[in-house]
C-alpha cells in the first residue's frame, strides 16, 4: 500500500481552514516591526469624522509635543508614564494610539479605566469603535460587534494575543477582575476616593499588573485641587519633563507660561490683540509663530529618572487653540469669581488650584455686619432655606436668604432647647417650617427647604422627616473629599423592609460634600466690599457676597470661621486637604453648609433667568421714595402653614409659588 504524505504547512490549498490557522500562528510568531507608538500612529492611524475635527491620516507633527509622550509608552526602560495637562492638547488621542499600537504590534491584556462606567461606555462607542473601524491595520483584529460569540462587547473586546477591558473607576468588580499588562487610566483626578469599599481605584488597578515584568502604566488627567490631586502627586514622583520651545528670533529655549501672554487693555481689554512675548528678548509671537516654535520644541526633565516619566502641558502649547480665545476665557473667569478661575487654572493652565482655607478674621466680619436688621429679609433676598444641626441637648437652625449670583443674607438663627429624645424639640422645629419672616418689600417669606443633619441620632431625624414630609425637608449626611461629581448627591432611599428591599415612599437621604461648601463659604467671606464712594460710582457688590445683619452675636461669627483647611498626610504617606477645627464650637458653619445644600437641592445653581424674574415678581417691588412698602396682610392672618401670598395688585393675576413647600408655596 502506498503511504500518504502529510501535507506541508506551506502548501495547504486543499485545507482552507487549516491554512488560515497556520497563517495566523505564523503571524503571531513573526516579530513585529520595531516601531514606536508615534511611528505606528503616523503609519497606520486614521482619525474618524465623528471623533475628530480633523478627520483623515494622523500626523504627530501636527502637535509635536505628543511624540515624546507616545514614545515613552513604547520605551522598555519606562514603566509608568504620567501626563498632567490642560484640555485641548490631545492627551486622549495619546491613549487611543497606545491602545491601537498594542492591539496591532504588541498584543497584550489591556485595561482602560475611565472615571465612571458611563464614561467607559462613551469612550468605547465614540472613540475606540471609530478608530477600530477606520484604521486599516485594526480592521479584522476584533470580531464583528454583531457576531454572537461574545468576543466584542461594549466593555470587553478580544483579539489575537490579548483583550481590551474598559471599566469605570467606580466599579470595584471591574478593577479586580483579571491580570493586566497595559494599564491606561484617563482623568484620574475625577476618580472617586474609593471604588465602593475596596479602596483607591488607581491602586486597585495597579495590582492587576504585578505579575507582568514588562507592564506599562499610563496615568492621564487634568489636575484639580492642590493637595488632593492624584495626577499632581504622580507627576511630582516622576522626572518632571516640560516642553522647551526655541524663540524664532533669539533661539533661546523656554517653557511657555501664562505670564508671558499679553494683550491690550486700554481702555477696554482686547483679546484679539493677544500675543506671546519671549522671556529672553521680548520678541512678539503671533499664533502662527508660536505654533512654528512649538514644532521645534523638545522635552527636558527637571528631576532624575527613576522609572517614571512625567509630562506637563498647558493650553498655550495647543495647536488647536488661539491665544485670543484663551484670553477671553481668562477674562470671563476673572469676572465670574474664584470658581470659574479654578476651572481656568485646571483646564487651561493644567495646574492645580490652591484653595484658600485660611480662616477669615472674625473681628473684621463682625465689624462689617449691618445694612439690615436681624430677623428680616433685605432687598435682594428672594427665597429662604435653613440648615439644622442636631446636638445632644439642642437643635440649632440658621435661616439664610438667597439672591442672584448666590449672594446670601443671614436672616435668623434659632436654638431649640432639648435633644432628639424630646418631642417638644421636634414640635418646635415643625412649627419653624410654618413660620414666615418679613421682607423689606412688604411681603413675608416662608422656608423653601430645610436641610437637617443626620450625623447624630439619625433614626430620630428620619422619623421626624417622615412625619412632616420630604417636600420641604431634606435629611443630609456630610461626606469628605473634594473630588465629587456634584456637591450634593441623591436622594437615596434608606428605609427598607424586613427582606431588605428599599421603600420608595420611606425616608430619603442626600449626601453633601461639606468640604466644597465650606471652601465656597470662605471664598465668599473674602470678597471685597465696595466702599460708599464705589457704590456712588455705580460699582456693585460682587456676586456671592455673604451678608450678616446688625444684631448678630460675636459668638456666632466666631463659629462661622471656626475651621481651617490644612494639608495633612495619610497613614500611607499621601497628602490630602482636610478641614480642621480651630475652636470647639462650629455650629454656625455647619448650619450654613446645610442651608447651602438646601439651596442646591431647591435648584438655585440651575435656575434660568425666567425663574429669577418670577421670584422677583413674587417678592414685589421695593418701597417707593416715601418708604411705603407694598401692602401686606397682617401677620396675625398668616395661616398655620405660614405660606401666604402677598396681596394681588389691581389687574394682576394671582399665581402660586413654583418651588413648593409643605402647602405648595413658600412666599408669604
TrEMBL record:
Residues 52-299 form the Phage terminase large subunit GpA ATPase domain. InterPro entries: GpA_ATPase, GpA_endonuclease, P-loop_NTPase, Phage_lambda_GpA-like, TFA_Chaperone. GO terms for molecular function: ATP binding; ATP hydrolysis activity; endonuclease activity. Residues 308-606 form the Terminase large subunit GpA endonuclease domain. It comes from the Bacteria. Residues 657-668 have a biased composition (Gly residues). Gene3D superfamilies: P-loop containing nucleotide triphosphate hydrolases. Residues 618-668 are annotated as: Disordered. Residues 619-642 have a biased composition (Low complexity). HAMAP family: TERL_LAMBDA. This is Phage terminase large subunit (GpA). It comes from Rhodospirillum centenum (strain ATCC 51521 / SW).
Amino acid at each position: 500500500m502506498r503511504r500518504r504524505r502529510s501535507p506541508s504547512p506551506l502548501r495547504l490549498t486543499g485545507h482552507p481552514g487549516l491554512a488560515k490557522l497556520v497563517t495566523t500562528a505564523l503571524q503571531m510568531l513573526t516579530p513585529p516591526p520595531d516601531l514606536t507608538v508615534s511611528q505606528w500612529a503616523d503609519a497606520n492611524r486614521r482619525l474618524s469624522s465623528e471623533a475628530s475635527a480633523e478627520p483623515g491620516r494622523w500626523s504627530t507633527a501636527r502637535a509635536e509635543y505628543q511624540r515624546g509622550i507616545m514614545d515613552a509608552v513604547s520605551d522598555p526602560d519606562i514603566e509608568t508614564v504620567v501626563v498632567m495637562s490642560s484640555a485641548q492638547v490631545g492627551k486622549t488621542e495619546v491613549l487611543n494610539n497606545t491602545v491601537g499600537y498594542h492591539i496591532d504590534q504588541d498584543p497584550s491584556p489591556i485595561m482602560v479605566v475611565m472615571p465612571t462606567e458611563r464614561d467607559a461606555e462613551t469612550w468605547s462607542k465614540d472613540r475606540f469603535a471609530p478608530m477600530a473601524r477606520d484604521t486599516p491595520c485594526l480592521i479584522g483584529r476584533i470580531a464583528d460587534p454583531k457576531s454572537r460569540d461574545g468576543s466584542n462587547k461594549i466593555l470587553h473586546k478580544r483579539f489575537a494575543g490579548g483583550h481590551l477591558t474598559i471599566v469605570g473607576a467606580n466599579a470595584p468588580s471591574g478593577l479586580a477582575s483579571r491580570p493586566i499588562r497595559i494599564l491606561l487610566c484617563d482623568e484620574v483626578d475625577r476618580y472617586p476616593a474609593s471604588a465602593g469599599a475596596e479602596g483607591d481605584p488607581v491602586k486597585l488597578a495597579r495590582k492587576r499588573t504585578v505579575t507582568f515584568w514588562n507592564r506599562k502604566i499610563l496615568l492621564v488627567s487634568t489636575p484639580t485641587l492642590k493637595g488632593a490631586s492624584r495626577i499632581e502627586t504622580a507627576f511630582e514622583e516622576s522626572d518632571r519633563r516640560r516642553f522647551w520651545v526655541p524663540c524664532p528670533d533669539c533661539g533661546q529655549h523656554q517653557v511657555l507660561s501664562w505670564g508671558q501672554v499679553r494683550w491690550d487693555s486700554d481702555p477696554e481689554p482686547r483679546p484679539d490683540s493677544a500675543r506671546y512675548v519671549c522671556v529672553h528678548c521680548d520678541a512678539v509671537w503671533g499664533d502662527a509663530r508660536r505654533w512654528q516654535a512649538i514644532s521645534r520644541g523638545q522635552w527636558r526633565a527637571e528631576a532624575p529618572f527613576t522609572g517614571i516619566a512625567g509630562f506637563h502641558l498647558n493650553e498655550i502649547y495647543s495647536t488647536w487653540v488661539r491665544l485670543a480665545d484663551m484670553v477671553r476665557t481668562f477674562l470671563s473667569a476673572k469676572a465670574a469669581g474664584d470658581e470659574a478661575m479654578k476651572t481656568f487654572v485646571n483646564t487651561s493652565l493644567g495646574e492645580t488650584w490652591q484653595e484658600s482655607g485660611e480662616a477669615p478674621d472674625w473681628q473684621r466680619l463682625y465689624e462689617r455686619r449691618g445694612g439690615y436688621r436681624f430677623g428680616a429679609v433685605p432687598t435682594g433676598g428672594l427665597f429662604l432655606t435653613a440648615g439644622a444641626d442636631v446636638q445632644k441637648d439642642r437643635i440649632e437652625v440658621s435661616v439664610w436668604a438667597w439672591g442672584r449670583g448666590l449672594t446670601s443674607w443671614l436672616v435668623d438663627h434659632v436654638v431649640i432647647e432639648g435633644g432628639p429624645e424630646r418631642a417638644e424639640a421636634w414640635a418646635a422645629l415643625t412649627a419653624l417650617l410654618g413660620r414666615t419672616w418679613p421682607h423689606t418689600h412688604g411681603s413675608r417669606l416662608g422656608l423653601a427647604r430645610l436641610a437637617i443633619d443626620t450625623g447624630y441620632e439619625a433614626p430620630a431625624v428620619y422619623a421626624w422627616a417622615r412625619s412632616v414630609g420630604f417636600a420641604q425637608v431634606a435629611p443630609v449626611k456630610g461626606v469628605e473629599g473634594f473630588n465629587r461629581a456634584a456637591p450634593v448627591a441623591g436622594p437615596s432611599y434608606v428605609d427598607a423592609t424586613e427582606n431588605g428591599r428599599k421603600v420608595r415612599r420611606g425616608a430619603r437621604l442626600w449626601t453633601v460634600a461639606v468640604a466644597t461648601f465650606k471652601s465656597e463659604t470662605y471664598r465668599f467671606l473674602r470678597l471685597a466690599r465696595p466702599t460708599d464712594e464705589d457704590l456712588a460710582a455705580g460699582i456693585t457688590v460682587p456676586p456671592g457676597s455673604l451678608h450678616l445683619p446688625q444684631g448678630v452675636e460675636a459668638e456666632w461669627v466666631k463659629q462661622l470661621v471656626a475651621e481651617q483647611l490644612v494639608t495633612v498626610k495619610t497613614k500611607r504617606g499621601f497628602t490630602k486637604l482636610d478641614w480642621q477645627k480651630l475652636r470647639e464650637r462650629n455650629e454656625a458653619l455647619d448650619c450654613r453648609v446645610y442651608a447651602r445644600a438646601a439651596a442646591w437641592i431647591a435648584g438655585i445653581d440651575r435656575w434660568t433667568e425666567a425663574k429669577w424674574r418670577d421670584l422677583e415678581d413674587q417678592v414685589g417691588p421695593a418701597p417707593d421714595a416715601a418708604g411705603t412698602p407694598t401692602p401686606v396682610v397682617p401677620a396675625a392672618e398668616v395661616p398655620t402653614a405660614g405660606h401666604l401670598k402677598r396681596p394681588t395688585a389691581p389687574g394682576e393675576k394671582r399665581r402660586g409659588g413654583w418651588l413648593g413647600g409643605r402647602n405648595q408655596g413658600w412666599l408669604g
